[in-house]
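Hello Y.,

Per our agreement to keep a running log of every chain we model this quarter, I'm adding this entry. I've kept the format consistent with earlier entries: sequence first, then predicted structure.
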Amino acid sequence: PTFMELLGRVREVALGAYAHQDLPFDKLVEELQADRDPSRNPLFQIAFTLDNTPHSELDLPGIKASLQLAQTVTAKFDLTLSIFKKSDGYQGILQYNLDLFDATTVERLAGHFQTLLKGVIADPDQPLSELPLLSDSEQHQLLEDWNATATEYPGYQCIHHLFEAQVARTPNATALVMEDQRISYAELNARANQLAHHLRRLGIAPDSLVGIAMHRSIELVTGILGILKAGGAYVPLDSTYPRERLAFMLRDTGVQVLLTEQSLLSGFPDYMGRTVCLDRDWPLMEQEQQDNPPHQTVADNLAYVMYTSGSTGSPKGVMVPHRGVVRLVCGADYVRLGADQTHLLLSPVSFDASTFELWGALLHGAQCIVFPQEIPAIDGLGSVIQRQRVSTLFLTCSLFNMIIDEAPHILSGLRQLLTGGEALSVSHVRRALESLPETELINGYGPTESTTFACCYAIPEVLDDRLASVPIGRPIANTIIYVLDRNRNPVPVGVPGELYIGGDGLARGYLNQAELTAEKFVENPFSEDRQSRLYKSGDRVRYLADGNIEFLGRTDHQVKIRGFRIELGEIESVLEGHEAVRKSVVTVGVDEAGDKWLLAYVVTQDGYSQDAEQLRDYLKERIPNYMLPAHYMFLQALPLSPNGKIDRDALPQPDESGPPAEESFVAPRNPTEQSIAEIWCMLLKLERVGVHDNFFRLGGHSLLAVQVINRLEEGFGLEIPLDVVFEFPSVAELAAYVDASEYTGYSDVPSLSGAGGGEHESGEI
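Predicted structure for the entry above:
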């Protein structure tokens, strides 16, 4: 509506209300049955009053009287705007609750109100959505000053071009280290060149997609670099994903070549393209030249396609060009990068933190330590950090929290510790600052669509006692950030809006999804360049007064659990593909410690049983483990709101603080089972655990599995591989393994290499 239309509506409503002004206030409260809370007014918290009666000075015999504004020390409401008519205009007072507002915020609010009034006076027939709130100086600050991030960097070059330049500078410097293996920059370059020449013979050219499915290793890095040098873009395929998901990714990308190793071939039975196994076929590659292939790619060509969860039921491939990666690690202003640093490649390559870990090292002459285990155990991680003198490390928030709780000392010696993936815990950050006084902590934020990081925040050594959340900071170099309302107008400082990201880190879009690309990658309304785009993140944020950005949540049903980006709609869509499911809703539960887990509500088709086990098995074949609901609740119908939509707030909650145990309870039968059950109860926040309960169905995940192993090793004095929890997920099975280890010795326990259960999915920081 226009302002004049709004004014007409207000007049109509106000006159209607005056007809009932004799109704006693107490009677109104009684009839409405409003929730009573001593901290606020039960009916409304914001008031506007207009006194439009002119007040002239009173002329009394011997007395001169004038109207004075009374001073009050108690706020009746959260916020009250009172306007008084005077002979020469109007005077206003904003009264506010000091528990909720400070003077700076209210002064800013008053200024926006005045700007709004000026806009109304200038054009009262203008739509409300187009009326101004910001002064020219405020708009310039939000759009220009806080986005002055342009720095010089080689944005016209590709990743492998810059790597080759580094090889020329430091050919004999160590590039990669994995346990006892070491390889120099020159050696890595030569091997990658041989692979690149071979791939070119197979037809790989600029923007060709090459699948890569390998364990974390020096050969994996060789494979990625070889694909880029050949001109192609790599598509990381995590071998722990269900076959159906991997098959979809192969079909969606249409990869010409699959680069893998012999032990993983069985995971791709339906792939009909060309397969290259680096371990099996390396003698063939060794016959190729070792010199750099002629350059064919430019900065706008693709470097990789990484899959993230999709709301439509299928994952979506994010297409990232070379320029996005180069902008991430060259000319960086959020972290110190250089030959004096030692980085740890800890993330799976299907998670875009690996982009920072790998190229932040190799494009600057630094050492990159390849972490040998698929899932990091605390002791193993600490050993590598200390032995290899790692100086720069990235951890997801969940892993960061776990280490700070369990063993913060393993991080001592780090110069820079970056963390992200979810909202940071203030209490864990405080403990980290106390435990790691020599380490700089950095909070990193950014979706895959903006190439790993879009904003970063250097956490100060001392946090404000009133701090409620850790900001995500400001845009990093060559990145643009806007906080906009639903009409894509900039919102004032302190006002929530949606985060839009621009700059050189933007992905090209989504593979084979032009409609979704057009929806999420929109034209930049603040740029004269018609090609300039913004990514509509769906993240709800606000600017703080100092220019840093605070993360507030999501505008949709996307969630973050242990660093993984999950579209709840994808799980619901897959669930509803089961013949027994009529309708489903997936939500997130949170236990007392703040750990999150997924909860599925299911309405079954008539004639079908309510079988949670069957649904678990069905989902396990189609989505990664970290997306599996920990608990299922069966309902006759889903609650609906008055407008017919599912009312998520009305869904019933489980009685327990976490996912419940299996229905058929069998108590522990020996001391080993009792010890393991007690460990599970403590970690999963459960009152009891039966010997046949499944760790992962109770809400366990890989990070909690790490803690299980740590406590078992401490309690039984054994060295236990992390894979054991995935191979023996019940109390009874795990106890049998521990007892066998005690009596027969660790070396006699059957090998569990290749056990499933890893949680690796492309995500974002």
